[in-house]
Every structure is written in C-alpha cells, then in structure tokens.
Amino acid sequence: MPVFSVVGKEPFPKVLVAKNTIEGVVDTSLRKLKLPPGSYKLILQKNGALIDEDELLVALQPESELVILPEDEEWEMSKSITGQETPRSTSGQETPRSTSGQGWTSVTSTITMRPPSSGVTRTSQGLRSNDISVPWVSLACVEEEFGCCSPLKPRTLRTVVHVLANHLVSKNDFSRTSCNTIAKEVFIKYPDSFTIKDADGNVLSDGYSSFLTSLYERINFIKPPELKRRRGAKRQLIEDEDGDFEHELNPRYESYGCVAWQPRIPEGESRESQERMRGMAALDDSPDILPDLYDKTYWLQRTDINNRKGSLEEVLLLWPALKQTSFFLSHCAKLLGKDCREVWFESLQSQGHNLFKYLEDFATTTKETNHNRGQLMLCSSLLLRDSLQ
C-alpha cells in the first residue's frame, strides 16, 4: 500500500498516511492533522497538480508529498517552498535561512550543477548508489506486525516486498547486490518474522533465501520495460558488469504466473462506471444480461479481490455470481489465459491411460503377493504340525 507525506496550509506538522484512495487519504489526514470537517482536495506539492482520481494517486512515487486544502481555497507555491530542504551552494555549504518572530521568511533557491559523486556509478541498468538504506518510514504501516507475528502473514510479507522493491526502483537501482543489502538489514532486525514452519510449528528454514528471491523477482517485474531483457529463441542468463544475473521472465505473465492478475482499467471506463455495472448485476440476474456485465467488470472484480482486507467471503458478497461454476470458470479463464476445463480434459486424456495402467498393475501385483503369502503360511503350518508330532 502506498505511503504519502501530507501537510495542511502550513508546512508543519507533517503526517504519514498509508491509503490507496483519495477519500481514505483525506479522511486519515483530517484526523491526524486535526482539521475541521468539510470538503477538501489533494494537491501534489512539487508542482501544484490537482489529484482527482484514485488511479493518479496510486501511480505516484512512494512518500510523495501532498497538500490537503479546503475545496474552495487556491494553492500557493510559496507555502510549499518553505517546508522544503534548504538549498545548497556550489561549495557544499547550506544557504542560511533567516527567521523572525513571525515564523519562516522566504528562501531564494540557487540552481547549481554538480559533478557526479564518487559514490554513484553508472551501470547498464541505471544509477546505483553504494548507500542503500531501508525505507522504514514506508514500512511503518506494517512495522507493528514484525514484533507480534512470527512468521509474518503472507499478505503482510507481500506488502513488505512491494515497499522495498518500489524503493529500489525509485532509486533506479535494480542489482541483486542492492537487493541483498536491503533484505539483509530487514532480516537482521526481525529474523523471526521470515521463518518458514511446517504444520506442527517446526522451523524448516530461516526464510532469508525465499525473502531475497521474492524481492529480486518483484524488482525485475516492475522495472521499466526498456531495461528488461527480451526473450530470445534460447533462454539465457546474462551477466552484467557487477556479476549479477538477471532471470528472464515471460512478458506474457504478471504476478503469481497469471496473465491478468491486476489488469488495466478498460479504455473509457472509470471506477464509477464499473460500480454502476456491478449494481446493475446485483439487481438483474437475467442469464441474458449477467454474463456480459461480469465480463465487462473483470477489472473491478480483480481490484476487489487483490485489495481485500479480510477473507474472500467479503468479495463474494459483492460478486455473488462468482459462486456459480460457469462464472467462476470464466473469471479463471481471464486470469490464467486458458480454459481450465480444456486443460483438465487434455490432462485426463494424456495421463488417464497411464494412471489406469498403474492401478491395474498395482492390483495384479498385490493379488499375486497375497496369494504367495497364503501359500507360505500354509507350508509353515504343515511343517510346524509335523515337527510337533
């Protein structure tokens, strides 16, 4: 879940909000900043752009700075600038700020050109920094579960992987070395949170290798398309300048081996239009209309499933037709990119004969074994009787 830094009309105080909808960010910000109730809007602090769609909010970089203002109030750049970092001169010294009894005064920014830092090297994959730190601020939404959950719940672990991957991608760093550095720092602080246990509670592994692999695969999935290796006639492992290996991924598949795990919203559609169609499907269960409505609202179905906070029962209350076999199989066909029934019948035809042959041979062998065992028992009984006479 994305984390944003939100301020009001004044540059301080700032609060962190972990929500993925405009309504959620506004409600949480009002509560944390103790603002009066009313109608508010969200502004992107760095350029003053109005954020009026949930899709725009989710697309922002992690820890983006937002300004919350009343709906009828205009945003002023000067109010935002005073809360930013003090600009530095070419000599590396900070430009002094002056204060008065009434608060901060305006600051004149100086644009400077710097030579590349010795701590940053250029690689074939982008800029890579030697100083990689864990974004603990972004992990604040799940930090409480590190101490109380051993191991972490799968949903929480997935959130941790996504936050760390987004952080490295925002740094334009896609190397396995950086993945190892940042994953090890989290693992050392919370080693019990990543253990892998069996059904009886026995520890099978410390879980570090699995955690590192998940993080590296997530980075390769979300990094810019132009930096991804294209699948050739023969699959290869290509070594980069640092000795890292990039694992090829099939571009057809998204997360978890699906082709449409979280699809894009159809062109010309919005969440509101999808919600209207869901309402129509709830009111009209006609077999002539319902399949078409469920086909058109696949994006909203996946969004509700992937963003749920509880069990799937909550989703089935919104989409009751998914309990029916035909609608469920149709949804799975879109998700996996193949007809599950055809796959089942093809597997049955190809493997059914082998399975039947195995069972037939097993039954024959078992029958012969039991017959031979009976003959041995009879002979043993006769020998025992003769020896006692």
UniProtKB/TrEMBL annotation:
Positions with biased composition (Polar residues): 79-112
Entries under InterPro entries matching the protein: CIDE-N_dom
Domain CIDE-N: 1-77
Single annotated GO MF: lyase activity
Region listing for Disordered, in residue ranges: 77-126
Protein's GO biological process: apoptotic process
Domain of life: Eukaryota
Gene3D superfamilies named in the record: 3.10.20.10
Keywords of this entry: Apoptosis, Lyase
Name of the protein in its database record: Selenocysteine lyase
